[in-house]
Amino acid sequence: MHRPSSPRRFVRLLLALPLVWAAPAAAEPVRDAVAADMPSLMTLYRDFHANPELSFEEVKSAAKIAGELRRLGFTVTTGVGKTGVVGVLKNGDGPVLMIRADMDGLPVPEQTGLPFASKATGTSREGLSTPIMHACGHDTHMTTLIGTARRLVAMKAAWQGTLVMIGQPAEEIGLGSKAMLDDGLYTRFPKPQFVLGFHDSASLPAGIVGVTSGFALANVDSVDIVVKGVGGHGAYPQTTRDPIVLAARIVSALQTLVSREVDPQDAAVVTVGSFQAGAKHNVIPAEARLLLTVRSYSDATRKLLLDGIARIARGEAIAAGLPEDKMPLVKVKDEFTPATYNTEPLAGRLKALWRTRFGADRVTDATASMGGEDFSRFYLADKSVQSMIFWVGGVPKAAWDEAGGDTNRLPSLHSPFWAPEADAVISTATEAMTAGALEILAKK
Fold first, then answer.
1. Is 2 part of any domain?
2. How far is CA 331 from CA 183, 254, 289, 391, in A?
3. E strands in 229-339
4. What is the per-residue pLDDT across 291-320, written as a single tens digit (0 to 9) for each?
5. Which residue in 246, 255, 302 sits closest to 275, CA to CA?
6. Nearest 5°: phi and psi at 295?
């Protein structure tokens, strides 16, 4: 998953302020209880961080979450969607609220220098040995899930309804939420009316909450194009059909999809992330391969882009004189992640709640991101569900100040250097999530 951006005006105002997110002096039950629990939560966080697991291999992480939820009185089911965890706590009549945390790490060698840095290794889906790191902050997400569960159990007298807490696998490959839904998440367990999730942010200072209404994250498609040709000697190109030249034409033509076919007020991205061809200076290969990432928000724009990619690849091959049996092969991969949509009135309701709780300086309107998140599927599986994912800034204030708020000068999510100010992320997210749950499940 990728980072959101925040409005420049907000950043300039923030840089001019003192440490505005310091807790007020007045006692506040949720905030004080979270603060008291932070030493224990940080121990959990360091354990999660030091022991990341790859997608669909989150066995130890799932066991830790399951154990914590069982101790709190949840009815816990493991192995949902392969390695997912579902904990259910019924507390009288009322709405069903589901809170989600994703669990998987990334095949990234950690370079943060933290004393509890990951030394874990694993085998990637491609069968390669790889280091593993929580380079996207899912360790903070799991810790917040546990912290929120503790607070809500301790405050059962203040709410009524059903709480469903889930540890979701395989967000990083876009398949975990689908796996849990396919395994009966909405049929074997109480189906939620509300779904909440959060993500740490590498584009906001530590402790700042970012909220987006409507589209929050993009459709993400991976597309492979195999460009065929006729190979031969580099000295006699006239005897060949050069797939490298054809693939280069395709790459250039693809740039017109966004610039000339998508409404300038819409958002779209077509990026060629890999161009693979040939192995020797004087040999024209028989094929070239292009790997693309394609981003959009609406279904209509997604279709326009995918149809356009296929049309351009075929059209350029025809222009190059290739016969029908040499047309490029265009494959849209099955790792599609649909766009994430934050519903109203839930997004506005919680944003207002958090601005009252934290102060307007700590809650900002975050712009939509072209990153992807399979949290989207919980809403798409049943559009009667109100759903929202929000951001909590993780950039340490000293690093933010040194960079002048320029996120291009800071480590991004998925960077081997990403080390969020974890205590600020976890304490803020746990308080925000707990307060949001109490609002949704408030006794009538």
1. no
2. 27, 15, 11, 33
3. 232-233, 268-277, 283-284, 287-296, 329-332
4. 999 999 999 999 999 999 999 999 999 999
5. 246
6. -125, 140
Task: Quote the CA–CA distance of 401 and 220 in Å, as a whole number.
Answer: 32
317 close to 326: Cβ distance less than 8 angstroms: yes
> Residue 217: what residue type?
L
Residue (of 205, 270, 172) closest to 21 by Cα position: 205
H or E segment and range at residue 104: none
The Cα 316–Cα 369 span in angstroms is: 32
Same domain, 110 and 251: no
Annotated binding residues, written as ranges, equal 136, 138, 172, 199, 414
d(CA 44, CA 28): 24
Looking at residue 1, its pLDDT comes to 59
Torsion on CA atoms 105, 123, 338, 380, rounded to nearest 10: -80
Q: Which portions of the chain are predicted below pLDDT 70?
A: 1-26
- 232 alpha carbon, distance to own chain's centre: 45
**Same domain assignment for residues 208 and 254:** no
**Tell me, what CATH number does 252's domain have?**
3.30.70.360
**CA-based radius of gyration for the chain:** 24
Q: How many CA atoms lie within 13 A of 416 on its CB side?
A: 10
Could you tell me which residues are annotated as the binding site for Mn(2+)? 136, 138, 172, 199, 414
Q: With respect to residue 356, please indicate whether it lies within any of the assigned structural domains.
A: yes
Instruction: Measure the CA–CA gap between 69 and 50, rounded to whole angstroms.
Output: 21
